[in-house]
Structures are given as C-alpha cells and as structure tokens.
## 1
Amino acid sequence: MTFKDLLLISSGNLWRMKLRTFLTVSGVVIAIAAFVAMLSFGAGNQRLITEQFNELGLFSTMYVYPPDKEEPNDSLPEPVLDQQAVETLAGIPGVNLAYPLQAFSVTVVALDTQIVTKAQALPGAAVQTKIFSQLVAGSPYSSDSAGEAMVTENVLEALGIKQADSAIGMEIVVSVQAASIDSGLTRVIQSVGERIGERVKDFRSDSYQRAEYWQQAAREELNGAMMRFFDGFMNARATISDTLTIVGVLKGAKRGRLGIDGVIIPIQTAFRFKSGGFTGDVVDLASAASQGKLFLASGDTSTQSYSRVTLDLDPKVLYQPIRDSVQALGFRTFSFAEQYDQIQRAFFYFDLALGLVGLIALITASLGIVNTMVMSIVERTREIGVMKSLGADESEIRRLFLVESGAIGGIGAAMGILFGWLITRIASLIAKTIMENQGVDAVELFALPLWLVLIAFTFGLLVSLAAGFYPASRAARIDPVEALRNE
C-alpha cells in the first residue's frame, strides 16, 4: 500500500468513529493548547526583556564600583575610583566611554512652582548613549558648558507641565545649598575668643597641676569645636543658582540600578554648583574626611572619588575580557550583559518547568489515543484478517495504525496551537487592561515564535505516534486465520 492508500483508509476509519475521534482529538487539543499558552508566556517575557535591554543599550553598559570594604586586601593598596581611575578605565580595549556618577540634590523653580529633585552631571558623549537618549521631546544639550538641561517626565509632572513639547525652550532656575568647610571653620574661629574668656573666668589656680583637669578641658573644647563646626557647615550654607534652558525631555525615571535622575546637566555647567563646596550632603563630607581630602580647595575635582563609573562598551567586544580587566584593577563590576545571561538561564528553567507541565497533559492525552486505537483493533479484527489474506504484511498493518494515531496527533496539535494562541490573546487583553487601570504602560506578555509552533506540533505528533506504537504492533501480530474466524 502506498502512503496515499494508508492515509485514505485511516481517514475513513477515523471518520466512521466521529464521536470517539472527536473526544480523542479534543484531549490532544487541550494538552497542546496548555503547552503553547504556558510556553508563550515565558517566550513573551523573555522577548520583552530582550527588547528593553536592546532599547536601552544595556548589553553594552557596565557599572564599576569601588572595592568592597568588607573584603580588604592588606597586601595591596586599595584603589580609588577617582578621575585617574576613570581615565584608566576609558583606556581598556573595548571601552568606548567612561564617565562617573555625579549626582546631587537641587531645587528647581519653574512657572512659580518649586520642587526638590536630583541632578546628574554628564558629559555630552554620555547623553548620546542609549540609556540617556530615550527622548520624548527635544534633543540632547549642545555642549558640556551650555546653559542647558534635560529633564525627565517625572520632573515635568511635579512642575505641573502636562505636555513635554511645551517644556522645550522653557527656563528653569536650578539652585543648590552649598555647605563649605570655610563656613564651619569660621564658626569655630569666631568662638575662640569667647571660649578663652570663659575658661579664664572658670580657671582655678589649684587645678592647673592636675592632669585630669587638662584632659577634661581638652575633651570639652574638642567636642564644642566639632559641634560649632558642624553647625556652621550645615546652617551657614551659600545658595548657588543658575538659569538653564530645557532642551530635552527623557522618559520617566527608572528604578533600581538604572536610575535616571530628574535633571541632567552638562558636566562643565554642573561644576559651577560644585565650586562652592559640598552640596549639603553629609555623605560627601564623611567621604572626604575618610579619604583625607576634607580641607582641599573647593571644587578641586582632581582628587574627587566617585561612587560609580559607567562604561559604554563596544557592542562587538565580549564583556568578559573587559570585566576581567576592570576587576584586575581592584574594582567591582556590574554588567547588564552578565545579568542577562543569568536571566536567560532562569528563563530556561522556567520554560522547562512549564514545558514539563504541558508535556504531562500531553502524555495524559496520549492514553486516550492508546485506548482509541486498542478499541479500533478489537472492532476491526476481521478487517485486519482480510487485508492480510489479500497480501498485506505486518509492516503495512503497523504503518496503517501509526498513520491513524499520527493523524489524531497532527490534527490535535494544529488545532491546539490555534486554540492556545486564542487563549494567549484573551489573557493578553486582560493583562493589558489591568496594566492600564493601574496606570502603567501596557506591554505584551505573550509571544508565539516559530520555534514554539514547531516544537508544539512536533511534540503532539511524536507523542501520538509513540502512543500508537503498541496498538499498531498488536494489530500487526494478529493471526489472519483467527481474525477471519472472528464474527
């Protein structure tokens, strides 16, 4: 018998038993639909993450952090993430650009509205990278010293500006409260004469020979000087302001490691705010004190250390050699490409778990195929005997029943893929509706790539053929004489 003959006979047999065939195919349809819907969810999320990584250029972005203080290396001096380190990092092969994180608190005034937000100083080359080029209106600033700024949609919302286009060309007043070491020292010096007078007034002639008296007096004066220093440092701040023009509006600030501050300022323009001293941040003061840089000239950036440096990498270069070179310098790294590899592994296990659940449903459906085929053999024993008596051999009988089970699996798999796709469309519509009601961007959580269609159809067909192997072998072994005696 030719394959065409086998297909015609098999389809005729399946058509005669419509109800049984329908129920058996329905089991395969449900199993394949569940398999497709679950893996479609994993594929959709994986595609969404990949698109976001590509859109933001995260595959070519690496963060560099100072050494971990919890794991000191006594044999080597601890490297400092300063301007010299930035230049060294920029010279690593495969690094297109290296720029530090310079963020500080600012007050922004526009349209009689005042808000407090974060500002970040960036060179012009940095705002050309994908991370900072997600503009909804306008363009990047023209130079590192321009009196211009880029703001996020969050800042516009806080200022009461609804349309991003209307903010382009608008002037904002950006100011910082700069606390300087000079103001703290001035407060200490101003109190010296007063403290000497009080000490002379309280001086007792019988106490000058007692060491305890001088120790107690020294502790009191030192504590008092520190309190007056911090009082002058925190409360005698100078306000440094500058008027900047909004030239670009970025998408809303991101959370986590990919934090985008509210106002992006050209690096040379931002230097005006730093020139007055510390921008009111006690952390800056503590950091400078711990590094022995407390009394350096205000605005001296040659010895300034950074909490993070961002590397923009060549997309054609693997991140592993660059990461190893940075770590060899003693710094810690965070690579989005490395994180993506970990996400990929997590998705692999996630898809595997979902696939196993769907496969279990498919195996359960295969039991229905076994039952259908076995019942078909019992009912068609005489037919099998007639075919054998007319010259059909065991291999042809086996192929006949395998074609029948394969037809059940093929039809069920095709309809299951379609049904699974419909389920994902309904689920996607519900998910997007919930996202919109929650005020977040609606994204597509499901995907039906070609590889998933092929895998689902192949699984459905193979499992059906495997389920039909035992009935087909049993039919092939039927004795034609005994079969013809069967009424």
## 2
Amino acid sequence: MFEDLGVFLRLGDATDVVTKEMYDFEDKGGRRIALRPEHTAGICRSFAQHRPTTPWKVWYSGSNFRYEKAQAGRFRQFDQVGIEVLGSTDALLDVEVISLGWQFFQSLGLTNVVLMINSLGDPEDRAAYIEALREYFESHSEKLSEESRATLQRNPLRVLDSKRVQDKTIIDAAPTISQFLSEDAQAHFTKVKAGLDALGVTYSVNEGLVRGLDYYQRTVFEYVSTSLDSAQTAVGGGGRYDGLVENLGGPATPGVGFALGIDRTLLACDSEEVFQGASPQIDAFIVDVVDGMTALRLADELRAAGFTVDRAYDGRSMKSQMKVADRSGARIAIIIGPDEAEAGNCTVRNLMTSEQSLVLQTEVVTHLASIVGERNPRRNTQ
C-alpha cells in the first residue's frame, strides 16, 4: 500500500497520476512515501530489487489511491487485480496477456465489453508523435478547452484523453500514431493483431488510445463496458512498458501486463444483471430456548459440514424464534427445548410440510443431508 515516493516520481512529471492525483507525505521516520496510485511501478521496483528469474509472471490484488474528483466509477480508493510478465519482448506474450483479461470478462458472463488496442511505438516513435501533436494542437489552441490547453503544456498525448465536446472535432482530426511507427514497432503490432485473430478475440484498433501512464510503449489496450452510463467506462487495461524496470534502477527488462478495476467491473455486472440469481436459501434455522449453547455448537458443526445455517439470539421465546425462522426462508427448523437439551436430541421440523421428527444431536448432520442433500464440507471437524 505504501511505496517510496521516488518509485512513482520516476513515472514522469507529465503524468497526472504523479502531478495531481498522488497522496504523498512524510512519515514519522522522515521518509517521503506515497499511497500506491497503481501497482505496476511497485512490481517493477520489486523486480529491480530482487532480480527473480525471467520470464517472471506475477499477479496481484489490492487497493490503490488517487486524489481526484469522486464520481460514478471513479473513487479515491479503488481495488484492482492484475498480472505482469517481465523478461520477454515477444508480441505473442502480449496476445496471451490480452486474451487472459478478455476471457476473464467472458467467464463473468459480461457480453457488453469491447476490447480496444493500439500501438504507441518505440520511445523514438512516441517522441516524434508527441512533437507532431504539440505542433498540431498549438495551431488550433484557440479552439481547445481551457483544460486541454493546460494539458497541452504538460503532455500533448493527454489531450487525446479529453471527453469534452469542445475538443472532439480537433482531436478527431489530429495526427495518428500509425504515421510514426518504426518498421519494428509496426511488425510487432501486426503480430499482436494476428495472434488475437488466431484466438478469435474480437478487437478494434483505436489510434486515440494512449492510456493514462507515460511508461507505456508499443502495445496498449483497454477493456470498455458499453453498458456503463458514466464517463468512466474502462473496466481494465494495460500494455507494454519495456523501459520501466531500467528507470527504477534495474537491468533493461521488457514487461507487459494489465490491471482490472474491481469496482467498475462490479458496476458492469450489475448493469448486465449477471448476478441476478436469488440469494442462497438457508438450509436450517436453529431455535434454542434453553441457553443458546446448543445452537452455538450445532450451527458451527452444520456450517463446517457445508450447510447454510442461521439462528436467533438474545434468549427470545419459542414463538418469537419460530417467527424469525419462518421469515428466514429456511427449509428446516432445528428446535432445542428443555426436554431436548436434557435428552441430547432435537426436533427437526420441515417448514415447508410441517413434518417433524426427533433426532439425536449427534446425527443432525446426516439427517439434514437426507432432507436437503449433501453439501461440500468447509472444514474438517474430526
């Protein structure tokens, strides 16, 4: 969650994440540290520090923090899962990474996610493209929004990210990166597209896609949900960052990866109603009118055996607890009164049919399974 501030400062002073959005402060030891705004830089710092064998494949999960205006799909604290692979420049590795994210969204049942890809070329290609953009946007600066004119002074690439209506016509007519790609970068991108075609992964090339961090080069990509209504529709994305490890003090090491936004992905799942199944039915509700200890023990035993179980608390009366049992939707009520507690048994009542039987407490697991079916044990209680 915390990193040395220098790790993120090396991402570049033209990056909004560094200049505007990072929480940084001095800790009690006098160290300048930052709340993690993204994971990739920390992964590359770890690689530079420990030098694992390549190719190094890792995954991560955790919170990030960015100081920005909170809105639908964009929070100051947000969770991501992602993968990184360091040690290979192979274009088909890019394909594997992209397709893994694509398959993840498919496995959730999301059908309104589209994949956009682009190539930012090599550093020299990117530098030439940035200069061409600068000249173009400066020649049309009077038509740009005030925000985009300020962005232009820091990094012309970021102007392409503008969603303001005022900027759209100018951006649509801007030079495109494909005009500046070297032969090697173009061949790399062609191979990426061929690999995605071979796997049947549907994509579109978006030459305005530049991503929000300046360490990317060559392949960049985003997964976008068309079912989200907010301005923030990207549910994940990533790309290749072949120079980042070197910038962090490690050996020259290529890398590629992605991060998927948990918050936006869940919003997309809600929008497409992929999790609209009913809540799991409670298998049994335990009614204990003695002292609650039997209910405590039986609930733990039944949950360990894989059953969903609930119970009442606060020493309520039999009538009160049975009302709660009925409202819970449970199929079975397991009743322990003074007589049952003394004899070591319980009354098992089918709340659907009102049939009931007296069962030894030691046989409740087996008896419940005979009514509602076997469950997968959650832990071994032997």
## 3
Amino acid sequence: MFTAKRLIRSFLIGVWFMILVFPIVGIKIIKRAPEFFYDRVFVIGIITFVLAMLWSWYFEVYKERGVSDGIFSKISQKCSALSEKVTHDKSTAMKLILVLFAAFMVLPLFTSMYQTTVYSLAFLYVMLALGLNIVVGIAGQLVLGYAAFYAVGAYTYGLFYQYFGLGFWVCLPIAGFITVIAGLLLAFPVLRLRGDYLAIVTLGFGEIVRLLLINWADFTGGNQGISNIPRPGFFGIELSPEGSTIYIYYLCLFAAIITIVIVARLINSRVGLALQALREDEIASEAMGIDLRKVKMAAFALGSCWAGFAGVLFAARNSYINPTSFTFMESAMILSMVVLGGMGSIVGVTLAALVLALMPEYLRAFSEYRMLIFGLLMVTMMIFRPQGIIPPAKRKYAPTALKNEENN
C-alpha cells in the first residue's frame, strides 16, 4: 500500500493543493493588514495527502477485480435499484412522498425560526431545479442563465408593488406570464443553436438581465434593490413575524409539491415525450413529425414559468431583492442540482436540490473549510456517480402477447 511512488505522488498532490488554497484559507485581511494562517493550510495538506493515498489504493486494489466490485459501485447499484423501484412502483413512490410530506409539515413545530427560513429557501431551490430540469434534463437544452428568469419573477413582484401597489397573489400569475414571455423571447433567436453555443447565448442573456437591473437604477433601484416588499396575507389577518415566517414556509412547501406533481405529469404527457425525443436525437424526432420549433419554445416557456413563481416567493420571503441574488453562481448552483440529481429524474433532482441547498448551512461549523468539503463531495459524486444520485429509469416496452404469457 505505502509504495515510494504512491507516497511521492500523494505528497506532490498535497503540496499542490496547499498552494492552491493558500490565498483563500491562509490569508485574511484584519484591520486592513494581512494575517497568515499557515496551520490551516498545513492541515488541509495533510488531509489531501491521506485522501490521495486512499484514492490511489482504492483503484489499485480493485483494478484486477473490476471497478464493479468497489464500494462506490455497490452504492451506485443500490441507487439505480432505488430509482427503478421509486419510478415504477407507485406504492413505494407514494409512501416516500407521504413520509417526506408528513416530516416537512411538522418541521416548524420542532425547529427554530432560522431553520424554518432555511428550509423554505430549500423548497424554492426544488422549484428552480425542477423548472430547469424541464429544459436541461428532459429537453436536453443546456441553459446557463436560468437565474435571469428567477430575477424577472422577483422584480415583477417588487416593481408592481412599488409602482402599482399590487399584492402577492395578484403578482404571482403576472410574474408567471411575464417570465413565459421572457423565455419565449430567449428561445426564438436560439432555435437553431445547440450545445456550447446555446449555453454561451443563455449565459449572455443572464448577464444582460443582471446588468440591466443594475444600470437602470431609476426604475429598478440599481444595486440598492427594492426593500419593504410585503409578505402575502392570510385572508386579511395580520400575522406576527414568526407567524409570517411559518406561513411563507408552508407556501414554499406546497409550491414545491405542486411543482413535483405537475412535472411528473408532464414527463408522461405528449409534450414530455416530445421533449425527451428532442433530447435523444433532434434529426430523428423531426423525421418522426415533431415540430422542433414548437417543442423548444414550449421547453423554455415551461422552465421559465417555474422560475418566475419561485422569484415571487423569494421576494416575499426576503422582503428585499437586489441584483446580487441573481448572479451566474446562482445559475451554476441550480444546474449542479439537476446534474447531480440525475438529468430528467424528478426524485433525484428534488433530493439533490434539498442536499445542495441545506449542506452549506449545516457545514457552517466548518466555516473555513465548508466550501472545500462541498466541492470535494461534488467532485467525488461526478467521478463515481456521473449519471446522478437517482437517474431516471429507462422505459421498458414489451409486446402485449409476451405480457399475457407472463401473467398466465
């Protein structure tokens, strides 16, 4: 195990990683003077050295047996079996949904207001991830500026309240309609683009929206944003701050559940099947009579709509919005949820959204290293489980005669 070659290689990896993280972890500006924390960098180097040794040993041990004998592959097989069971066994899926729903329904009774606020944000990420999953996972169109639609929804509520005095429930459908128009405006000029070119254009669209919000300061408030956005009312009853927080929590929870149900129905609909055909092969789907123009525009419209709804909930939850909440990093985080969960999978994307939204909060105890741990977990996931946590189960077809013989 401890060969000289492996020791030298692991040592060089540790030194390289120490150099890489030194500007982030090893230097802090305190009272306008830099202070150096060599002990933290040294600890990271030791941990990296040990992990590199274990990494090399793992692949050497299972090289002759085949990677399928490894522990990570066994976990991968378990996840695949769980995906098949949850997707095809409706009773299992219903039990899982009921258990999660019951747990989240009583969660505010046993947690603090801070935890309730964190979970409400996690439910918003579930909505965003499932909305992007329609475009990226189901339709196969790579979008890197999804936070732009999120911003359009949030600013629709903020601006309509500021200038017209409209409330939450009135702005919610208006924001959905406006974000659908924004999605169609983006989709129309990029109908012939695919792959990296489509990703670059959508990335540019996201930055255009963000810079427009910053530079149009007379209308949007610029970097100062919009404050004092009211929270939704409950049949005219004035709620306390704690009651309003719990009310927003349940709104986000039910919005996430509605999103899950609608996206699940969408996948098995005619539109959903057309989107999946588009993802697999555009030429073959067009040859089968699918109108690619309409299908692509439908994908962008449906995906952007859910981002608009989530944006209104975000504005109501925070009572304040500004352009810094809708940067490219937000789009990258939402895309990571789709990729890590399993592109096209509802259960996997939902689980990944909850994990990636809650993990940074629960790793605050490791405030100096939490993003490193977060990145390490993501890289490990991409190596050993590139298809996602729970990938979508493949459709299986069998002739009717064979099904009858199996039943008999």
## 4
Amino acid sequence: MSFLKYKNYIYPLFVAISSAIIIVFGLIEATDIRGLYFLAGVYVWLLIFGCWKTCLRVLPVLVIAGGAFYGIGYLASRNHAFALAMVTRFFAVVIAVIPGMSIEPTAITRNLSQLKVPRVVTLGVLIMYSFVPVLRAEIKRVREAMKTRGAGSILNPKIFYRAFLIPLVTRIVDISDILALSIETRGFTLGKTKYTVYKKEYINVFDVLFILGIIAGVVLTVVL
C-alpha cells in the first residue's frame, strides 16, 4: 500500500538526484533556448508534485533577480544570447534548490540513515538544514535590536560592523555550540555504533513518476 500512497513530499534520495540533474543539465544547455524551456517544464512539474508552496515563494526571486541578471548581461555584452544564458544559469541554480526546500530535514536524515550513509555526512546535512532557519531568525533579532537602540542604517560600514556583524557572529558561535550539544544528547555519534531508523522512507509510484518526468524532460530537450 505504501507504494501507492501519495505523499506531500518527494522521496529524499530522488530529491538529490533530481537537483543534480536540473543544475547540471541547466548549466550545460544555458546557451540554448531549449535549456530555458527545460527549466520552465521542471518548474511546472515541481508544482504538480507538491512543491507549489516553495515554487510560489521563489517566483518573485526568479522574476526580479532574473530580470536584473538579463539587464546586467545585456548591458555588459550588448548580446541577447549572452544575457539569456546568464538568466538560464541563475534559473538552473534556483530551481534545483526547490525540491530540497520542500521536504523536512528529518525526512532527509532518516533516508540517509536508512541507506547507511556515513554518519558524518548525515550529521552534516542535518546541521546544515537546522542552521539555516536559526540563522535567519538571529539576523531578524539583531536587526530588531538595532532598531530598538536607534543604531542607524545598516548601510553605514561602522554601524554594520559594530551593531550588526559582531553581535551576529557572537550569536552564531553560541548557537553552534548549542546545536552540537543538542545532537550529542540525542544520541548521534560519529563512531561505528549500531542504530535503527524508527520511521523509514519508502519509494512510491509518485516518486518514480517524478524522477522519470525529470529524465524524460532531459531526453526530450536533447532530441527535439
């Protein structure tokens, strides 16, 4: 039954494979308009397979930053094809990140542990995913503290260094120690110890369709 059950996220290993395919093929085909068509198709495919929240979240970035990249590229080269290639490369990087942003860190960790990936890699991925939202929250807190104290504009180099960068770095060091201690107290070790995975990740038909759709997109882009 698990093979036929729909999930709201993609099988974690397929996420890594699809992201690698998207970014590599997108960069290879960046100088051809077909590369842009491929990325547009992948974006729609991700919308269909449950990544619509992340797709909509990054859409303003694609539009605004993509337009800026095109403008910079065209002004620098006066060449439409060169500017379009810059935009395609940017889109490839951003769209390749979407699948990974659409699943929980715990799902990735479980899948890596289930596949017997070295613990140093599993812990590295877990810390990376856990650290990003914490870093975002700390930046917001430091900015709010600056406004409360009336520190001034962050664009001022002295204010940026003393009122923003130093407090942020101090908080990051403290948070890294807390994360390391938290992982240790939860029983994660780098030694060769036996462990079990309580909730395993299983591949279902929708995961297979997803990765086959990405591969089919590559094939069609090359053939057509």
